[in-house]
Design brief:
Helix content: 25-40%
Number of strands: 10
Number of domains: 1
Radius of gyration: 20 Å
Distance between the termini: 39 Å
Shape: globular
Order of helices and strands: EHEHEHEHEHEHHEEHHEHEH
CATH topology: TIM Barrel
Mean pLDDT: 93
Structural class: alpha/beta
Number of helices: 11
CATH class: Alpha Beta
Strand content: 5-15%
Strand order of the largest sheet: 1-2-3-4-5-6-7-10
CATH architecture: Alpha-Beta Barrel
């Protein structure tokens, strides 16, 4: 049987954007499917996440919380390969400002994540500082400001972490400023960068979290470009953020209220962020994360399709 000829595009169809050379590789993460925990009945099964992230047109993923995706490298390699997916990074939470007493416990957590990331061919490990208040209940766990001694521990041990992860697993750590942690906005991030060795420590700039804390992503890229080792693409809803700040709301309830929103409807505008990143002329991952835990299972995929289309219009 003869196949029907393709129909011409309608006059209202938008042309495809011109091809723009770029060294930015775009991906997504379990976070964009409402996944925050290794096991939670409100989260989509890992098989559905892999099916949908591939269906949305992404080729790169992060591992997400350790244990959500299969931790057997052979199983995970088979599941990702047959969907045309590759792994860019693993993710760990650390509390290194607490000093050497937490090193062994921290390293145990880091090592299992790094080993899986290495086995999957990833080149990065995203390191997120621990929360100073509970991200769901709002209970204050410790002072939101670090002492001078805690800053020394944070920077010294993060450098050690970077060197040991590189030596043992061949991965580069990228430290992720995050809402409700001691690294969030311009003051803490620039202090951290100025106090750490660029050979050991790079930054994962999450555009949404940096905006959440009042930072300017474009300015940070232009000022500290050599330290930007990885990007998370995310936007905040300015109106919801204003409510969150006014109410002193912790991060978890803020996400449930919708503080992180679908691009391009929020801030910062991602076009100038991506333009600044392209100007660095380095290989860089830009991983889409739209925090929305918890969410209905049918919500993430349409958003992922629209977001991937939007990013193509930005030239990546």
């Amino acid at each position: 049987m003869t196949k029907p000829s393709p129909q011409p595009s309608s006059p209202s169809s938008a042309p495809s954007p011109p091809s723009v050379p770029t060294r930015i590789r775009v991906g997504s993460a379990p976070d964009s499917w409402g996944v925050w925990f290794p096991d939670d009945p409100r989260q989509v099964p890992w098989q559905r996440f892999l099916d949908e992230v591939a269906g949305a047109g992404y080729e790169w993923i992060e591992l997400g919380p350790y244990g959500y995706l299969p931790t057997d490298p052979a199983v995970l390699a088979e599941e990702t390969a047959r969907r045309g997916l590759r792994v860019s990074a693993g993710t760990v939470f650390t509390g290194l400002h607490h000093g050497s007493d937490v090193w062994d416990r921290t390293w145990g957590h880091v090592a299992e994540n790094a080993a899986l990331a290495q086995a999957m061919g990833a080149g990065h490990l995203v390191v997120i500082p621990s929360f100073w208040r509970d991200d769901r209940t709002g209970e204050v766990l410790e002072d939101p400001l670090l002492t001078a001694g805690q800053w020394r521990d944070l920077t010294r041990l993060t450098e050690r972490l970077g060197r040991e992860v590189r030596e043992r697993y061949g991965l580069r750590i990228v430290v992720h400023p995050h809402a409700d942690t001691h690294l969030d906005g311009e003051e803490s991030v620039t202090r951290f960068l100025d106090a750490t060795d660029p050979e050991a420590v790079s930054l994962c700039l999450d555009t949404g979290h940096y905006e959440y804390a009042g930072g300017d992503s474009v300015e940070l890229i232009e000022t500290y470009g050599e330290r930007i080792g990885y990007l998370h693409l995310k936007q905040v809803d300015p109106a919801v953020l204003a409510e969150v700040v006014a109410e002193g709301m912790p991060f978890g309830p803020a996400v449930a209220r919708g503080v992180m929103c679908e691009p391009p409807s929020g801030a910062p505008a991602l076009e100038p962020v991506l333009a600044a990143a392209r100007a660095l002329d380095v290989d860089l991952f830009a991983i889409v994360e739209q925090d929305m835990y918890p969410c209905a299972p049918d919500v993430p995929y349409p958003i992922a399709l629209r977001t991937r289309s939007f990013l193509r219009s930005c030239g990546v």
